[in-house]
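Hi all, long-time lurker, first post. I run a small reading group and we've been trying to get comfortable going from sequence to structure in the token notation. Rather than ask abstract questions, I figured I'd post a concrete chain and ask someone more experienced to write out its structure so we can walk through it together at our next meeting. Sequence below, copied exactly:
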Amino acid sequence: QSCAKFTSGRYHRQDGFLFYENRLCVSNCSLRDLFVREAHGGGLMGHFGVAKTLEVMRDHFHWPHMVRDVERICARCVTCKQAKSKVQ
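-- Answer (accepted) --
Happy to help. Here is the structure in token form:
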């Protein structure tokens, strides 16, 4: 299911990109994983959990099943797994 298949007043195109409200629609591609990883642990992000990562993602991007993708990537984060194993 792709954002491009939807037609609604909430969607618009700008400079060749499709937006849902003010969020960029991301097609089913490797960019989704890249964006989630960056929101979870890249740059200034501190390997937040699913809820905070999802909050950051929903501010900027839109795609079907985003929650599932964020949960999957956060669960597989090696840095988070190592930190949890040191605490336990």
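A couple of things your group might point at:
Residues 7 and 56 are 25 Å apart (CA to CA).
The radius of gyration is 15 Å.
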